[in-house]
Amino acid sequence: MASLSFDLSDKCAMVTGGTSGIGLAIAGALLDAGAKVAVGSRKPEKVAAALEALGEGRPEGSVLSAQLDVGDRASVDSGFAQAAEQFGKLDILVNCAGVNLKKPTIDVEEDEHRFVMDVNYFGPFYASQVFAKQCIKQGAPDGDGGGYSIVNVCSVTSFLALSEVTTYAASKGALLALTRQLAVEWTRAHGIRVNAIAPGFVPADQNRQILKSGDRGRRILECTPMERFGTPEEIAGAVAFLCSPAARFINGECINVDGGFMIHGVSDATPNDQE
Ligand SMILES: NC(=O)c1ccc[n+]([C@@H]2O[C@H](COP(=O)([O-])OP(=O)(O)OC[C@H]3O[C@@H](n4cnc5c(N)ncnc54)[C@H](OP(=O)(O)O)[C@@H]3O)[C@@H](O)[C@H]2O)c1
């Protein structure tokens, strides 16, 4: 009996937030697995730099970029339509665009709360609707078993409380609930598997300051059996796997990619006293 493939040749993907950090690494991993990939984000200079970095040494037309804001429906509509038209189809959506906010909850302003929810929750919700409509238009997925696939980039805060990131945690908790809802509704109706990953702590533009402030970073490492932060590339492989035929029976799941942070209880050993 042949084993199932990890290959993504003939698949076409849209990665929102694919222009830096974890999203850029996810775009690279999908390309390395054989997919064609479109990346989208707000800032033209990041979109241009990502296109150049990802396209280097790859066949013409394998990478596209779109300037889009997931909080703005019109720009999601046009970015996805452009990718679908140029690739001829879409098979994979990775909802990776995200922003963070660390602030005492009592001081969070309504517009700050709405901004984070717009990008981290309503963005993926709307992008998923647009993607699903495109899949419905395309008809039943090809018969390799991978099918259509959505992967949402959640967080340890989808499961656990971390101090002073209440709005972010609410958005990522909602995103995990969305993952499960769509996995039930859309696999049956449209052949779209919907999964998530929950990355551990990876220094990136949106959280570098938070990880460095006070001794939060040190306490995170004390609760991480691997005793280090992750890299974007270490997060990305799980997404490529979830989109592949090898993952064709995985649906509604969230994979923790965190060096063991989520399973850590109380340990006598800490990085400080092991020298
Ligand atoms: N780093 C971590 O430790 C960690 C842990 C758990 C989960 N995550 C999640 O991983 C995802 C990627 O974050 P990252 O850490 O790699 O941070 P990052 O380097 O700051 O990347 C965020 C990406 O999202 C894009 N983006 C932000 N707002 C957007 C919007 N409204 N519309 C479209 N694109 C937008 C950014 O590009 P523009 O600025 O050009 O828009 C950028 O490409 C986020 O969802 C984050 O919550 C990160």
Plain-language structure description:
- The protein is α/β, with parallel strands linked by helices and 275 residues long.
- The protein has a single domain (12-256), classed as Rossmann fold (3-Layer(aba) Sandwich), CATH 3.40.50.
- The chain has eight helices and seven strands; from the N terminus they run βαβαβαβαβαβαααβ.
- The protein has helices at residues 21-32, 44-55, 73-87, 110-138, 166-190, 208-212, 216-222, 232-243; strands at 12-16, 36-41, 63-67, 92-95, 148-153, 192-199, 254-257.
- A seven-stranded parallel beta sheet has the order 3-2-1-4-5-6-7, with helices on both faces.
- It starts with 11 loop residues before the first strand and ends in an 18-residue tail after the last strand.
- The structure holds NADP nicotinamide-adenine-dinucleotide phosphate.
- The site of NADP nicotinamide-adenine-dinucleotide phosphate has 29 residues, from helix 1.
